[in-house]
């Protein structure tokens, strides 16, 4: 599947205007050779069967997703996926624009597709190897705000046993994230520590120029 920016198509343009994507539009998406994965008030998520390891999350046309917002999402998810690799999918790219109508491509992210592990209701918690609650405990201990929607559809138990948050979350002030660098300490490679520090610095620059 190509990375975004990806050119608009009639069916995707129609889908991006619907608050809840209709059954008719879902069928049109499938006829276009794409796989419908889900949608909500702000995003439509699809996949190209030729690249089953990736998912493309479009921002709906009426939702703001500027270039700066795209960069903030990319930097923040780079941090989250490095520190919590079994709880946040890798984001490969993010593209934004000031207005959906003024660009010929879709705004959104290309991210790792999390394939759900078969779980059983009474045994689900025993099948999770990396619970998301651990992320929440660490962030609370480090005094880092973590903005998530706790609806069950936003969590997928991956085949690695990770409980992944598959909705989007917004970054707090970059200075709050410095605590993650201290937390990583010698538990992570120097390469990973330096990567996180770089992304925090980039996020700080973006936030300071608002």
Secondary structure blueprint with pairings:
Layout: H1 10-15, H2 23-31, E1 35-39, E2 43-47, E3 54-59, H3 67-83, E4 91-95, E5 108-112, H4 124-127, H5 132-141, E6 155-157, E7 163-165, H6 178-184, H7 190-208
Antiparallel strand pairs: 1-2, 2-3, 3-5, 4-5, 6-7
Characterise this structure.
The protein is α+β, with helices and mostly antiparallel strands and 210 residues long. The strands form 2 sheets. The chain has a 5-stranded antiparallel β-sheet. It has a two-stranded antiparallel ribbon with strand order 6-7. The protein is built from 7 helices and 7 strands. The longest helix has 19 residues, at 190-208. The two termini are 33 Å apart. A hairpin with a 5-residue loop joins strand 6 (155-157) and strand 7 (163-165). Helix 3 (67-83) runs antiparallel to helix 7 (190-208) and helix 6 packs antiparallel against helix 7. The protein is globular.
- The number of strands is 7
Strand order of the largest sheet: 1-2-3-5-4
Q: Which residue ranges are poorly predicted, with pLDDT under 50 across at least 5 consecutive positions? A: none
Query: Structural class of the secondary elements?
Result: alpha+beta
- Fraction of helical residues: 25-40%
- Report Rg: 18 Å
Helical stretch tally: 7
Largest sheet: 5 strands, antiparallel
Mean residue pLDDT = 88
Beta fraction of the residues? 15-25%
- End-to-end Cα distance, whole Å, is 33 Å
H/E topology pattern: HHEEEHEEHHEEHH
Shape assignment: globular
